[in-house]
Every structure is written in structure tokens, then in C-alpha cells.
Write a structure and sequence with these properties.
Elements: E1 2-6, E2 13-19, H1 29-40, H2 48-51, E3 56-60, E4 62-63, E5 66-67, E6 72-77, H3 95-99, H4 114-121, H5 127-133, H6 138-154, E7 158-166, E8 169-170, H7 179-188, H8 196-211, E9 218-225, H9 241-250, E10 255-260, E11 278-281, E12 285-288, E13 296-297, E14 300-301, E15 306-312, E16 323-325, E17 332-334, H10 345-368, H11 373-389
Antiparallel strand pairs: 1-2, 2-6, 3-6, 4-5, 7-8, 7-9, 9-15, 10-15, 11-12, 13-14, 16-17
């Protein structure tokens, strides 16, 4: 499976084309819209989320609620486009119109793709860069992730994400009873945090940053339960599932770090405190006494829950902007200000769910796939049975 996305932040629409989804997957517009609405929520979001009411149009690849096996095309329209038709239109304009064009950007924002992208592609107006490098693009990545989640759900695999830390405020209560319990609590939290007290402190930290014209980041965690043993491979670097998951998480805008299980804490522990002892269970077969490695060994799944975390830096668009240099005059100025969030960590946890779900669904379809969902389900169940009886 693979997908491509297209579209600019203030263009007419965002589009994704998904190829390789098996035939027979039950998928509806409502399934995708639910995930898109989750992405728009969260304490600290800016005015753009009040303007946009993201909904998907399925324009190909699905008939009567079932995937056909052909490419699936999804479109999300930008409501704000009506205010940007002249500025972001595809039709040619005159030199005079270009000179009068508002919102041209010559002052790059530190921490963004503005300057590097302008140098790479030769753009004097850095709006050509920021419109595509904007996190608005994650809208259709979440749409693609919704399709992946439906594949996993049909195979008895569940995905959940939550926020562990925002602006230095850490969740202390993280031991949830079940993945359903985790989902229920975090869906009701404005910051998607399982720890209610920590969640209130996180909101206070977001409000303080906003009042100061600043932004804050945090840490999100994604858990995946029900993945059979042996998904991925140890035989080559580019087939290791943990490397694919790491790349997917780091591809999310503003993410700068990723870890599995106890992650970087392993550097400060002895081997006996890091590795998970193997035990035998009559009902489950092989399992682990602990899950410090986050459900992955040797680039493959162990059958334990997959646990992956991502670190999101503070959003670099600030209402108290940092110093920069105007590329036309080379004079120092404060950077351009674009409408933005003070904190997007809660929304980023939904994006993280989407990209993790996609990589796992992709790996399973490649390993067990025969182009039909019911036959993939049969093959996955055979693998689960094999692992229990091995």
C-alpha cells in the first residue's frame, strides 16, 4: 500500500490517493470524518480550526461502502479558500498584479521550512514554501490513517493515542485498565491526557504560553494491540518495522524524536532491566513478562502491545516572533507572523495514531495480503494460531 497527498494550506482542497487497499474493506465517509474531527480538537488550537469543518469526499475506489481494490481518492475542501482565491489561484497573473499581491513573504520564520525551501526551489515569495510545508497537510494523512484503522479493526487490532507531556507538565497516571478505557478517557480530555489533574495543568501551561505570544510542545504515545507475532523482518534494514514506524512518526510536522517502550531510558539501565523475559501461557502461547521494548524485537513484532512515542517541538510560528533576515534587503527583522496554534500536541497525537496505523496496516497487507480483506483475515488468524502452537 502507498499514498500520496497534494494541496496547499490555503488552496482549494487537500487530496490523497491511496493505492493497494485490499478489496472488500468496509469503509464509509463517516469513518473518515470521525478521525478528521478528532484532529481538529484540542486545547490550544488556533482560529483556523474554527473556520474549517473538515469532511472527506470519497471520489473513487469505494462502491456501496466497500473498497474495490482500485485506488481510493479522498478530498477535503478548504473553507478558507474563498478568502485566498486571488492569492493562491492557479491562473497566471500580470507583473503589476504580482507587485500588488498581499501576503508575500520575504522574512523566513526560524524553525520552519521557509528559508531552506526557498533556497532549494528558488522561490522569492516564501508563501510558495509555507503553503505546502504547513501542518494542514496532515489532514489527509489522518484521512489515509482512517482507512488503515479500518483494515486493522477488521483484523482485531486496536490503535489508541494519548498525550504524556505538554510544556514540561507530565502525566503521572498512565496505567489504564484497557485500551477501550484509554480511548474513552482521552476522547473526553481537551488535551487528550489520561491523567485528569495533569490535563488541567497542561491547559494552564498552554494558556500561559498563548498569553505570552509563545508556543509549547510535548510528548505523545501511540499503543497498538492485537498485532500478531512476526510482522516486519530482521533480514534487511529497510524491512524492519520499527525503522518504518520511526520514520513515519518523524515525518509529522515539528516532530524531532521517537522511542519505543522505555526508549532512551534503556541507556541508563542494565540489560537485565531492559529486555523482556519470555514466558509460556496455555491460552496465549509465547508472551513476555514485561514490555520494556515496546512490542518490537529484531525489527519484528513480539505479539505484545506496540508502544511508540514522539516528541513534538513547540510550533515555530510565534505571535512574539524571533529575529530573522529579510531575503530581499538582507536587513534584520522579526519573522513573519502567520495564523497558528499555541500548542498542537493533542491534535498531533491523532496524527501520530494515523501514521502508525498506516505503517502497521501496510506491513500486514504486504505480509499476509492476497488483495481481499477476508483472505488476509484468514492468513492473519493462521499466523496467530501458529504462534500459539509453535
Amino acid at each position: 500500500m502507498r499514498y500520496l497527498t497534494a494541496g496547499e494550506s490555503h488552496g482549494p482542497q487537500l487530496t490523497t490517493i491511496i493505492e493497494g487497499v485490499p478489496a472488500g474493506l468496509y469503509i464509509t465517509k463517516e469513518d473518515i470524518d470521525y478521525e478528521l474531527q478528532r484532529r481538529q480538537k484540542g486545547h490550544g488550537r488556533g482560529r483556523r480550526m474554527q473556520i474549517e469543518k473538515d469532511q472527506a469526499r470519497i471520489t473513487s475506489g469505494v462502491r456501496h461502502g466497500r473498497s474495490l481494490g482500485s485506488p481510493i481518492a479522498l478530498v477535503v475542501e478548504n473553507n478558507d479558500w474563498k478568502h485566498w482565491t486571488k492569492i493562491m489561484g492557479s491562473e497566471p497573473i500580470t507583473a503589476e498584479e504580482e507587485s500588488e499581491m498581499k501576503r508575500q513573504i520575504s522574512r523566513p520564520r526560524p524553525g520552519h521550512a521557509d528559508l531552506n525551501g526557498a533556497i532549494k526551489y528558488g522561490h522569492r515569495d516564501m508563501r510558495n514554501v509555507l503553503e505546502r510545508s504547513s501542518a494542514r497537510e496532515t489532514t489527509v494523512r489522518v484521512a489515509a490513517g482512517a482507512v488503515a484503522k479500518k483494515i486493522l479493526s477488521q483484523l482485531g487490532i486496536q490503535v489508541a493515542g494519548h498525550v504524556l507531556e505538554i510544556g514540561g507538565v507530565k502525566a503521572e497516571k498512565t496505567n489504564y485498565e484497557s485500551i477501550e478505557d484509554l480511548k474513552k478517557v482521552t476522547e473526553e480530555s481537551p488535551v487528550r491526557c489520561y491523567d485528569e489533574e495533569a490535563g488541567r495543568k497542561m491547559m494552564d501551561a498552554i494558556d500561559e504560553a498563548k498569553a505570552n505570544g509563545d508556543s509549547i510542545g510535548g510528548i505523545v504515545e501511540v499503543i497498538v494491540e492485537g498485532v500478531p507475532v512476526g510482522v516486519g523482518s530482521y533480514v534487511h534494514y529497510d524491512r524492519k518495522l520499527d525503522s518504518k514506524l520511526a520514520a513515519a512518526v518523524l515525518s509529522i510536522n515539528a516532530f524531532k524524536g521517537v522511542e519505543f517502550g522505555i526508549g532512551f531510558e534503556a541507556a541508563r539501565k542494565n540489560g537485565s532491566e531492559v529486555h523482556d523475559e519470555i514466558i509460556w501461557d496455555e491460552e496465549k502461547g509465547y508472551t513476555r513478562a514485561t514490555n520494556r521494548l515496546g512490542g518490537l524485537e529484531g525489527g519484528m513484532t513480539t505479539g505484545m502491545p506496540i508502544v511508540v512515542r514522539g516528541v513534538m517541538k513547540p510550533i515555530p510560528t510565534l505571535y512574539k516572533p524571533l529575529k530573522s533576515v529579510d531575503i530581499e534587503t538582507k536587513e534584520p527583522f522579526t519573522a513573519s507572523i502567520e495564523r497558528s496554534d499555541s500548542c498542537a500536541v493533542p491534535a498531533a497525537s491523532v496524527v501520530a495514531e494515523a501514521v502508525v496505523a498506516w505503517e502497521i496496516a501496510k506491513a500486514i497487507v504486504e505480509q499476509f495480503g492476497v488483495d481481499q480483506m477476508d483472505r488476509i483475515a484468514e492468513n492473519v488468524e493462521k499466523m496467530r494460531k501458529l504462534a500459539r502452537e509453535f
